[in-house]
């Protein structure tokens, strides 16, 4: 796995104002501190704010949502205690529209489709298993995909996420034989050299929690040969 960023100059800020800050998470970053002890993205953002605005003392930053460590893309943080509960409500009520890009090994059977599964999480394996029918302790998972671009060896998909389950996109795509490039956990035969997977939180649309204006944030994918080919 790639190392956490420690240099604020590597931070890609997509949007910021007095109430929120939106950044483009790199694959390998952890959003919030965990048992690894690695420096989380939240701390890097705090350092950025403290330096840019010359803030003495502790910087307030609220974590609203997360992305899997090997995934890249949009992360929203709250900069005020007023914005945090409002953002939490927006995300809890599914009022934030999330769109992802994924590069998969096999072309799906349909050009576009809605996938509905029941996901059951295995905490010991840190993995979710997709079932076609409800099983005990499972949660309903829904996503829509469409083929974005066919490459020589892979297929790029655009995904609209309707529910936010643990490893949802990774598990559901794997269940239809379209495992994400680099995702060893869900069945691909080769990892990416940097430990990333080709799953990117591309676009997020929501209403600003304080200004009440609609925002659409777009995050450029990591710069590598495959992502660059998709952008052409």
Structure in a nutshell:
The protein has 232 residues and is α+β, with helices and mostly antiparallel strands. Helices cover 16% and strands 33% of the residues. Strands 1, 2, 3, 4, 5, 6, 7, 8, 9, 10 and 11 form an 11-stranded mixed sheet that branches.
Keywords:
eleven-stranded mixed sheet; Pseudouridine synthase; 11 strands; alpha+beta; 232 residues; globular; disordered N terminus; 4 helices
Secondary structure topology:
Elements: E1 13-16, E2 20-25, H1 41-52, E3 62-63, E4 72-78, H2 83-92, E5 97-104, E6 112-122, E7 127-131, E8 139-150, E9 155-161, H3 168-175, E10 199-207, E11 214-218, H4 225-231
Parallel strand pairs: 4-10
Antiparallel strand pairs: 1-2, 2-4, 3-4, 5-9, 5-10, 6-7, 6-8, 8-9, 10-11
Describe this structure in words.
By secondary structure, this protein is α+β, with helices and mostly antiparallel strands. It has one domain (8-231): Pseudouridine synthase (2-Layer Sandwich). It has 4 helices and 11 strands, in the order ββαββαβββββαββα. The protein has helices at 41-52, 83-92, 168-175, 225-231; strands spanning 13-16, 20-25, 62-63, 72-78, 97-104, 112-122, 127-131, 139-150, 155-161, 199-207, 214-218. Strands 1, 2, 3, 4, 5, 6, 7, 8, 9, 10 and 11 form an 11-stranded mixed sheet that branches. A hairpin with a 4-residue loop joins β8 and β9. It is globular and about 55 Å long. 34% of the residues are buried. Mean pLDDT is 94; it is low at 1-6.
């Amino acid at each position: 796995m790639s190392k956490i960023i420690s240099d604020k100059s590597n931070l890609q800020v997509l949007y910021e104002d007095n109430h929120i800050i939106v950044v483009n998470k790199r694959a390998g970053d952890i959003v919030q501190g965990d048992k690894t002890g690695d420096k989380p993205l939240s701390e890097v953002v705090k350092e950025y704010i403290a330096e840019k605005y010359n803030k003495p003392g502790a910087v307030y930053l609220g974590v609203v949502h997360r992305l899997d460590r090997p995934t890249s893309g949009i992360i929203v943080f709250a900069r005020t205690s007023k914005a945090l509960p409002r953002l939490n409500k927006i995300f809890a009520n599914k009022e934030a529209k999330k769109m992802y890009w994924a590069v998969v090994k096999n072309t799906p059977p349909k050009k576009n489709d809605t996938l509905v599964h029941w996901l059951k999480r295995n905490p010991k394996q840190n993995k979710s298993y997709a079932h076609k029918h409800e099983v005990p302790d499972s949660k309903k998972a829904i996503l829509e995909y469409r083929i974005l671009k066919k490459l020589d060896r892979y297929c790029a998909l655009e995904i609209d996420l309707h529910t936010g389950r643990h490893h949802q996109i990774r598990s559901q795509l794997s269940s239809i034989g379209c495992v994400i490039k680099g995702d060893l956990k869900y069945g691909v035969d080769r990892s990416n050299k940097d430990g990333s997977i080709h799953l990117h939180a591309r676009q997020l649309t929501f209403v600003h929690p304080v200004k009440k204006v609609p925002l659409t944030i777009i995050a450029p994918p990591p710069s590598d040969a495959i992502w660059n080919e998709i952008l052409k």
